[in-house]
Design goal:
Blueprint: H1 3-9, H2 15-35, H3 39-47, H4 52-79, H5 88-93, H6 95-105, H7 108-111, H8 118-149, H9 154-172, H10 174-187, H11 195-214, H12 216-219, H13 234-243, H14 245-256, H15 262-274, H16 280-295, H17 299-305, H18 308-329, H19 338-378, H20 383-411, E1 415-418, E2 424-427, H21 432-440, H22 442-447, H23 452-455, H24 462-484
Antiparallel strand pairs: 1-2
Helix pairs in contact: 1-24, 2-9, 2-11, 4-8, 4-13, 4-20, 6-8, 6-11, 8-19, 8-20, 9-19, 10-11, 14-20, 15-21, 16-19, 18-19, 19-20, 19-24
Length: 491
């Protein structure tokens, strides 16, 4: 029996710990979903009343800051050595400041309700979003680094990642399930709340219940992969990242794919400003959401047929094909026949949900493979820097797509004005609805084809990866034996 097979048979992480990791991710995602996609753009423009150009610039500027902030945070984490590990200490501390930052981010319209100056609103937007982004990074980088450090077993890591994605998909997704319904209730006068109240209520839940759950990652998990005794410098962390060819290919691929995030931005505007029914997203996405949860059960079987690289490339191609068909099929009725368009989008979402689920697990697992690769090559593990790439790319996708999407609003003829009742309403040009439909469906996935280029050169798969895992299993056993006889403890 090979070392690799032996490693697969050992299960280090129990059900309770997997659940704790999953519920922690759900708490984190509940708040993040209010910021992701088009909701942040909608909040700042339509709810807070800030000009589209100012919002686009702010999101772009802070997106550039993330290119420095995330890897720097990862390097600092890699230098950390405590009795709790190098990742968990941050997860124990960050929930409280992140809770406050989340609430303050969406409290602006209430705090500045009487403010007449747009400049004051813009300053508040910059400060509140910067603070939220700062603390979110402190939590997100170690959280995903933990998915590799939680166990030396690849099967354990896949289970932990799947648990996080599955539970967060159910509970974390509640914020974006409730928000469209609340917005429709407000717009139709069902209750006496404003759109700013809708966002703030969900932010309060995210800051209290959500961050309470997120703290489970710090207090109810363990780091089991033995760390190197030497503390790498921050500069060494960056050097290792650039020497890690498989990781760099993943980075390039994901950066090239950032504009697929435009679909999420314009999905929000399509439902709210074209169909004038924000809650339509709920029944359209429901079948796909249910199927997506079942897809987690299919991942182990799929991985016996295809390697991670093949799965990622298949995902990109299938999204392009499906979105192209949907765009042309819906051209005649995308704004006039809500029943037919709902069925069409339901079919698209059903197919997409299969790939969305797989895509929520596989890239995280691939970055874990690159961490093992560099440990095999250099003897040092760099979860912090490596997984800062995952969080950086996720936020880059959000910031670039949201920034560009928001900047495109006046270009495609969409703006907001205050009506006689004091509500923000849309003002549209002749072809605005068509542009929104295209930017929601076909355009993002045509641009997403660029992702295929770097993945064509990715070779950390098959026999090569199996050999690395086998040799690393032997090295870790030796290192664990040395630690138990007088080395540095990992917890």
């Amino acid at each position: 029996m090979s070392a690799a097979n032996s490693e697969k048979e050992v299960r280090y992480v129990g059900v309770k710990e997997n659940l704790a990791y999953g519920f922690a991710n759900a708490g984190q995602v509940f708040g993040y979903n209010l910021v992701a996609g088009g909701y942040l753009s909608l909040f700042f423009t339509k709810v807070f009343g800030i000009p589209e150009e100012a919002v686009a610039v702010m999101i772009f500027v802070l997106g550039i800051w993330d290119t420095i902030n995330d890897p720097l945070m990862g390097s600092l984490i890699d230098k950390t050595r405590t009795r709790f590990g190098k990742l968990r200490p941050y997860l124990m501390i960050v929930p409280i400041p992140l809770s406050i930052a989340t609430i303050m981010l969406f409290a602006g319209p209430e705090i500045l309700a009487d403010a007449k100056s747009t400049t004051v609103k813009i300053v508040y937007m910059y400060i509140s979003y910067f603070i939220w982004e700062f603390f979110y990074t402190i939590g997100d980088v170690p959280f995903w680094g933990l998915s590799t450090a939680i166990s030396p077993s690849t099967a354990d890591r896949t289970r932990a990642i799947s648990s996080a994605r599955f539970i967060s998909g159910i509970l974390g997704g509640l914020s974006t399930t409730l928000l469209p319904v609340m917005m429709d209730f407000t717009n139709n006068g069902v209750w006496n709340l404003t759109l700013s109240h809708d966002f703030l209520i969900l932010a309060l839940i995210a800051g209290t219940v959500g961050m309470g759950l997120f703290s489970l990652a710090g207090y109810k998990t363990k780091e089991r992969v033995v760390q190197t005794i030497k503390e790498p410098s921050v500069l060494d962390g960056f050097k290792v990242m650039f020497k890690n060819k498989p990781l760099m290919l993943i980075i390039i691929g994901n950066v090239l794919g950032t504009l697929t995030g435009l679909a999420g931005v314009f999905q929000t505007y399509y439902y709210s400003e074209v169909l004038n029914l924000s809650s339509a997203v709920l029944w359209i996405n429901l079948p796909g959401t249910i199927f997506g949860f079942l897809t987690y059960l299919l991942i182990p079987k799929l991985k016996t047929k295809l390697d991670n690289r093949q799965i990622v490339m298949l995902n990109v191609i299938c999204r392009f094909v499906v979105s192209t068909l949907v765009f042309f099929a819906g051209l005649g009725f995308y704004r006039t026949n809500i029943v037919v368009i709902s069925i069409l989008l339901m079919i698209q979402n059903f197919i997409f949900s299969f790939f969305n689920t797989i895509n929520s697990v596989i890239p995280t697992e691939m970055i874990g493979d690159t961490v093992d690769y560099m440990e095999w090559k250099t003897g040092e593990r760099n979860e912090g820097v490596s997984f800062s790439v995952l969080t950086f790319v996720g936020k880059l996708t959000g910031s670039v797509s949201t920034s560009i999407g928001t900047a495109l609003l006046p270009v495609i003829g969409l703006s907001f004005t205050t009506n006689a009742q004091g509500m923000q309403v849309a003002v549209k040009g002749e072809n605005t609805d068509l542009y929104i439909w295209a930017l929601f469906t076909i355009v993002p996935y045509v641009l997403g084809l660029l992702t295929l280029i770097p993945y064509a050169f990715y070779n950390l798969t098959g026999k090569r990866l199996a050999l690395i895992r086998s040799e690393m299993a032997e090295r870790r056993s030796k290192l664990a034996a040395e630690v138990s006889t007088g080395g540095v403890q990992d917890e």
